[in-house]
Structures are given as structure tokens and as C-alpha cells.
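User: Can you help me understand a structure? I only have the sequence.
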Amino acid sequence: MESNTVLVLGATGGIGGEAARQLRDAGWTVRALRRSGEQQIELRDGMVWMRGDAMNRDDVLAAAEGCSVIVHAVNPPGYRRWGELVLPMLDNTIVAAQANGATIVLPGTVYNYGPSAFPTLHEDSLQQPVTRKGAIRVEMERRLLRASSRSCRVIVVRAGDFFGPKLGNSWFSQGVLKPGQPVKSISMPNAPGVGHQWSYLPDVARAMVELVQRRDTLAPFAAFHMAGHWDSHGTQLAAAICRVVVKRGGVQPKVRAFPWWLTALAAPFVPTLRELREMRYLWSTRVEMSNAKLVSTLGHEPHTPLDEAVEAALEGMGCLPATPARKLSTVKKAFTTAVFALAVGVCLCTIDVRAEHLFANLPSIGQ
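Assistant: Let's start by predicting it. Here is the structure, written out as C-alpha cells:
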């Protein structure tokens, strides 16, 4: 009988963290490998955090012992040396999965495909990438396909550009908006009138969890596409951001075109911009994934309404003010604290403790 234990590589990142939390909430015992930590093993947030490096095969083998599923959502630190490190990390995951007869779950992308497969992508569409990163993605899946015939299963979930409340590196958080700041402007990378596919992180993670729960009914190598949120004219996401900002009391943001010319100047010096620029072709032509296979398998695709998803994403990124309910809660908490401190002061006065001394050491009351 298979265990109900899963190892998540990349649990401190966007999709890895979301998958870990949802698997935990679904009743799985979640182990999370991370590079740093004061203790070798730590129980936190309902998960077992283990110190180790996905580049170290022994660390991955030790963390994966007894696991029936491994979520491979890890990337090199800061995306540096991506081309050098991605494949060795995947090889370690494959070895660990084969040693335990586990299923590997990989969050996939559209980078595998080139113009020969556009505009509508199916799971079996021809993979002829035109970028370095796309070629590496194809090689990753080729190695997983080969591994799936040798003691392990593979599930690949391909989705559009991520957005969500706990997002790592992404177009949404690095190109469209500025995390931690009120939304004053929105930079849209797409060419005028060109549609784009976005995927809400919790929806992608939910699809992964549902597929994992029926992994025994799937092919040894099973790939699925998500439709996510299809922005047919490249304006709907920006419009949703504007609606949410105004709804939460902000000023209508300005929508601008992303400054591609600036990335051309800065790319030689800024690795992140260099990576973003390589994917520009995906913003100049229509690329849409068909989710027919996923719907046929699950009966549906997990889907959060756009405005609801955008609001959660902006709030999680620190781009929205606190809701009135939260502000009221903060006021109530401060008032309760002050009343309690006042009561303590009165009681102490009855035993000849000077009230002035008490209040001098309780600055929150004065505030």
C-alpha cells in the first residue's frame, strides 16, 4: 500500500508552496526540502521542513524515503545558472522517485512550444521551441518520459503565466506590477489586441492535487493543459486590476505598455530582464492551451473568478490597503488592550502603586 507522504521540492516558491499547502489540507503528510534552516528537521505550518539541497542527490534521496509522490517545483537560487542546474536537479528527483516507486509531479509551461504549434496547444502538439529555456523544458520532459517506464509515474501540468497571493518570480509580480506598493500603473507586455493566457496559482495547485489523488488511473506519463484565464484581447487582466483597486478605495491605475526598449538596454546587466526578454515572442502572438483532456479526466477545471483571483493576488502581494473589516478589527484590538491596561492600573493603585508610574510604562494607552 502506498504511503500518504509527499515530498515538495521548491516549497518556498510560488507554485511549490501552494501545492504543499493544498496537499497538507487534503490530508497528506508533507515534507518540504529547503536550503536554509536552523534545524535539520522542523515541524512548521503543518509540514515537515528538512534542510537540504535539491542539487545534492543524497539530500533528495533521504528526504524522499517512503514518499509516494514528489512535486518537482524547484528552481536554482535567484534563477542564476538556470541552464546549468535545472537538469541535474531533475535527475536527482528521478533517481529518488524510482527508488521509492513514486509519482513525479512537474508544473509545466508553454515554453516547450514554438510558432509551429500555435495558436492552440494540445498536449500532443509538436514541441519545437525557439528559445534556450524552451529547449531545456523539452529535455526535462524527455527525461521524465523515459523515467516513467522505469518504476515511477509522471504527471505534467502545463499552465499559462502565474499570478496569485504568494507568488515568486513571475511576469505578474516582476513586469506587470510592483509588489509591496499601491497600484498606480499597470505595465502590459502584450502587443495591442493580442490575447494571453494567465493561470491563478491556487487553481493550478488544486488541479495538481486532484490529479495526484487519481494517479493510479492515469498513464505512466500523463500531461495536461489548463485553460486558466484567457485574456482574449490582452486587456481583461488590466481591467480586472483596475476594478479591484477602485473597489478597495484606490485611484484608477494607468495602463501602459511594458517598456521592452528598456529591457534591451538593461538585459546585458540584469539576468532577470534577460530571461523576460527571451520570452517576448509569447506576447506578440496568440497562444492558447486547450484543457479538453483535463476536463475529460477530472470532470472540470478548478477555476476562480477573475476579479476574486486578482483581489487575492494583489492583497497577498501587499498592493492593496487593509479592508474596512480588518481596520475595525485593529481598532478593536487596540481599544481592548487599552481597557485591560487601565483596569490593571486601577487595581495596582489600590495597593499604593502610583498610577503615574504604570501609565508611563504603557505608551500604547497614550497612543
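Now, to help you interpret it: The longest helix spans residues 324-349. The chain has two domains: 5-316, 324-366. Let me know which part you'd like to focus on.
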